[in-house]
Amino acid sequence: MSCDKTDNKLQVDIFETSAKGNQLTKITEFPAANTKVTIKLIPEQTFQTISGFGGAFTESSAYLLNKLSKANRDTILRAYFAKDGARYSLTRTHMNSCDFSLTNYSYSPVEGDKTLEHFTIEEDMDDLIPMIKEALTISQDGFKIFASPWTAAPWMKDNNKWVGGKLLPEYYDTWALFFSKYVDAYKAEGIDIWGFTVENEPHGNGNNWESMHFTPKEMTDFVQHHLGPKLEADGKGDKIILGYDQNRAGLKEWVDEMYRDEASSKYFHGTAIHWYESTYDFFPEALQYAHNKAPDKYLIETEGCVDSEVPKWKDDAWYWSKEATDWGWDWASEEEKYLHPKYSPVNRYARDIIGCLNNWVDGWVDWNMVLDRQGGPNWFENWCVAPVIVDPDADEVYFTPIYYVMAHFSKYIRPDAKVIGLENSDDKLMVTAATNPDGSIAIVLFNETETQKTINLSIHEKNVEFSIDARAIQTIVIPKNN
């Protein structure tokens, strides 16, 4: 929308995704609405610096891309990484196998190999590494990538199994070396690793797929006495180490331990979190606590998805309807059932990302970028939804509404942006805003209600009026020097 350049008129561009069918559509006409909302931006008030938005490179996603035509493979990777796509800037991958792998595997396949003479990333060469390299070629701005292990090889663990168990203390140094060797192996393939989470879901996952358990003290001791010093000694002290990497309600006990003193704190660059504790609650108190405990450290959402659902194929309406369930709908304890109602997938993503940004989270990373119509492949049959669903047999691609929701943030709020203050007169309209490094400002609005709303947006002495549809998400871009 371009307004007259009179002294007090803001010039803005507005992009909308809606239940009525807009898909990151630039809109210029705004029907009047009876409900009026005033939003005042306060750019002088700044909060966290953004590290990025994106998704995960998994063996499952990479395997599916290899089964598609080159045209469709390129379409998907460009949609995520190109300048005219979502411009993903922060990504994750897995070290060794995870549930979104085709089978169990480890880079340390030889039992008792304490010095990792036989370390190999051969398992990643066919699918995972080509996907990452192609994305790097497409991305003009580049992106950060961090890696997470689900488990060490069974021979390093007290139960000698892929699932559950703990890392044996005699292999702590071996496991620290594993991270260092991984950096070198990926570097040899032309891929720079930005950092790590120490362990995906250290509480475990109900002993269903790859996992390895740590208490807060065990993880902190491993990082302080083994992983941190090893990376430092090997000239990799700049690699980011994120602790925890599970749900938010557990944040307090983890950050209290991770940042227990200077000796432990110096090796943790931040805290990683997931969203699976609830389909709607983003746990603002826990996020605030984690930030206040370590205000200069990262606080990054490293995984989230609509889980325990088989994705709906070419049915946009489902992604906007409150029919989706998660694991907690079936399996949560009675006292926690209330945290897991049926909830629209679009609402879940938009609500959580805005809620996170308004509570000090600086990065938000989705789970698989691509899954098939079953919500896999997943060796444990732990079916999930992804923003892009494919049918490799028919060579067809479906960009779900979730893809567009992610792009509302990743495309317009760039790394090193600063979240800024604002005043919002409507507590049913979610709003967040950030000033980008180029001086532009991106504001994201989410209207979950059935009511269209007229928005009066102001900054300093300038303002603009427009409307947001019912059940819609908008990104408003204010160019620099407006």
3D architecture notes:
Strands 2-1-20-17-16-15-3-18-19 form a 9-stranded mixed β-sheet, covered by helices on one side. The chain has 482 residues and is an alpha/beta fold. Helix 5 crosses helix 6 (251-258) and helix 11 packs parallel to helix 12 (401-410). The relative contact order is 0.19. It has helices spanning 59-67, 70-81, 128-138, 172-188, 216-233, 251-258, 262-265, 284-293, 316-319, 327-331, 345-357, 401-410; strands at 13-18, 25-26, 35-49, 52-57, 90-95, 144-149, 195-197, 240-247, 270-274, 298-303, 363-368, 370-372, 388-391, 396-399, 418-424, 429-435, 441-447, 453-459, 462-468, 472-478.
At a glance:
With 482 residues, the protein is an alpha/beta fold. The protein is built from 12 helices and 20 strands. Helix 1 packs across helix 3 (128-138).
